[in-house]
Design goal:
Length: 465
């Protein structure tokens, strides 16, 4: 394997790449992969000012993340290849200065467009402005790049470009609808513009590269699993038999780079690449919830859980609503009442409202099985040698759900929640206390109350009669 060439890395040797969305989850992993696995000449990264931080200040904070630690050890000077281009995809011409625009037009060989607003609950106007309108600007910019070899547009599997009529009601949310509109714009120019579309399904933390279980935010389903592990989320409305179509982000990045190589060296016809859960590794959302629950209960608890983690996955929306109000909303109001008496700011009810909103947004994905074809990825993989298949892993061979989720939870503790490993013994002791309280309150007290009222209302009149 060591003697085999990495032909995918070779196409980037000495070439220049322009990346939008470099501060996002997928964008950061893409940047790291380029710097670690290729000899790319330069990466131009479009970043905007945000929360009073300049683009350069934001980039300096990004590279301090643990994601880049292996790269810094392997090649400390690699980050010098990154050059920040101040701009914003929502502005005309991306807000890029004339000098920088000319620089990019003369140098860029590859464009990777991963910038997007991934909020599922935003207004249609905002979603279209960020995810659709920006594509028009990007396509025009791509035509101006004199050295362009390929534009890669990162979309989502939950769009269907072949539909002639796009109706909002046919899509899970405004995000997927706006991405579908964006795809149509790209497809219209495919005949005379070198462009491919990569469509990942639900993108989850890293599996293997460069570290296990890394994610930079909790806005995807992992946020719900963390809330469940903290004892805050007690019920979830999902179809327990519904397939969970998720894909680790490092597999998506590998597919993006391998698809680039395939387009340049093998097939100009493979323009749409679905990157979803690999065949042969089918899990349900219930599998994931239950596995996360067992890990939190037995191996990796979070610090200071507010209740023993026990989330009920419910297929009935009516029963879910009952659970929601009995075991989440009412206890939250009770805790907030105590906080108000103690002159503290109430916040538990607002947390529960946000969690409920998250479950509603997740509903279309957790109550329906989506069927996608990964045939193009399969064809590309057949052209790769052993070294390339290892470096750019796109299949699920060797994937173990429990190990993967355990690594995710450990990484989230360390990186997202700042809960260090030396706090695990304390977390386990606290969890035992929560188990005792949960057992006394729910397993004994509530059952006793139920039996008492059954006797009082049902059996007592019979005996008295």
């Amino acid at each position: 394997m060591a003697q085999e060439p990495d032909r995918i890395a070779e196409i980037f040797n000495g070439r220049t790449v322009f990346i939008t969305g470099g501060s996002g989850f997928l964008g950061q992993v893409l940047i790291e992969k380029f710097l670690r696995s290729t000899n790319v000449k330069r990466l131009y990264l479009l970043l905007r000012t945000k929360k009073n931080k300049t683009p350069q200040e934001r980039w300096n904070a990004i590279v301090e993340n643990m994601l880049f630690d292996p790269l810094k050890k392997q090649n400390p000077t690699a980050l010098k290849k990154c050059h920040i281009i101040p701009g914003d995809i929502c502005e005309d011409n991306f807000g890029i200065s004339p000098e920088n625009r000319l620089l990019l037009q003369n140098e860029v060989n590859f464009i990777y467009h991963s910038a997007a607003s991934i909020r599922f609950d935003q207004s249609l106007k905002t979603a279209v402005r960020v995810n659709t309108k920006s594509i028009k600007t990007l396509l025009q910019f791509a035509r101006e790049c004199k050295q362009l070899l390929l534009l890669v547009h990162v979309s989502t599997s939950y769009v269907f470009h072949e539909e002639e009529v796009l109706l909002l009601g046919d899509y899970p949310n405004t995000y997927t609808y706006s991405k579908a509109l964006a795809e149509k714009l790209v497809v219209e120019q495919m005949d005379d513009l070198p462009v491919i579309i990569v469509r990942p399904s639900i993108v989850c933390p890293t599996w293997q590269q460069p570290i296990c279980g890394w994610i930079n935010n909790l806005q995807n389903p992992m946020g719900l699993f963390v809330a469940a592990g903290k004892g805050i989320l007690r019920s979830a409305y999902i179809n327990v038999d519904c397939k969970a179509d998720f894909v680790p982000v490092d597999c998506v990045i590998s597919a993006i780079m391998a698809s680039t190589w395939n387009y340049l060296n093998h097939s100009k016809q493979d323009r749409f690449i679905n990157m979803t859960g690999p065949s042969g590794y089918i899990f349900t959302w219930n599998d994931i919830f239950e596995t996360c629950k067992r890990i939190n209960q037995t191996e990796v608890p979070f610090n200071w859980v507010i209740w023993y983690p026990e989330t009920f996955t419910l297929k009935s929306k009516i029963i879910y609503k009952i659970h929601l109000y009995l075991f989440q909303m009412l206890p939250a109001l009770f805790i907030d009442g105590i906080l108000a008496i103690l002159f503290q700011k109430p916040f538990f009810y607002q947390i529960q409202k946000r969690l409920h909103k998250g479950i509603e947004v997740f509903e279309k994905f957790g109550t329906k099985t989506w069927n996608f074809s990964n045939s193009t990825v399969g064809k590309i993989r057949e052209k790769m040698n052993i070294k390339e298949m290892e470096t750019y892993k796109m299949d699920g061979e060797g994937f173990h759900l429990r190990n993967y989720l355990k690594n995710c939870i450990l990484s989230i503790r360390r990186n997202n929640l700042n809960e260090h490993d030396d706090t695990l013994p304390t977390a386990k002791r606290h969890l035992m206390v929560m188990w005792i309280i949960d057992f006394i309150v729910f397993k004994i007290l509530l059952v006793s109350v139920f039996v008492f009222y059954c006797y009082k209302w049902i059996f007592s009149p019979i005996f008295e009669g």
